[in-house]
Amino acid sequence: MEIASTPEASLDPLAIAESWKAAGRDVALATVVETWGSAPRPVGSHLVIDADGNFHGSVSGGCVEGAVVAEAVDVIGSGSPRMLEFGVADETAWRVGLSCGGRIKVYVERLA
Fold this sequence. Notes:
The chain has about 110 residues and is of the alpha+beta class. The chain has one domain. Helix content is about 25%, strand content about 30%. The protein has helices at about 15-20, 65-80, 90-95; strands spanning about 25-35, 45-50, 55, 80-85, 105-110. The protein has a five-stranded antiparallel β-sheet. The protein is globular. InterPro entries: MoCofactor_Util/Proc (IPR052698), XdhC_CoxI (IPR003777).
């Protein structure tokens, strides 16, 4: 798995998505659509993921990125978008590390 670094690291995730698509890579986009409490990224934050699990951007400051990447790879394969929800009231919060509080909803879709 690759984490984007300089000079890509400073680029907007949507620009990265376009460059990856232009290079023939299958790409998914994860977007924060709702937050509550101490979610570390605001609504509209993006994470772009390719079919190999490479990613750029952030939807949670590292709390749930691993889970979102895994789901995004599945979305790329299936073509079916999905809504992901993480929070302290959710049993997955402790598994993915969102124990700081709050709730986050992330919409994941394949980019055509």
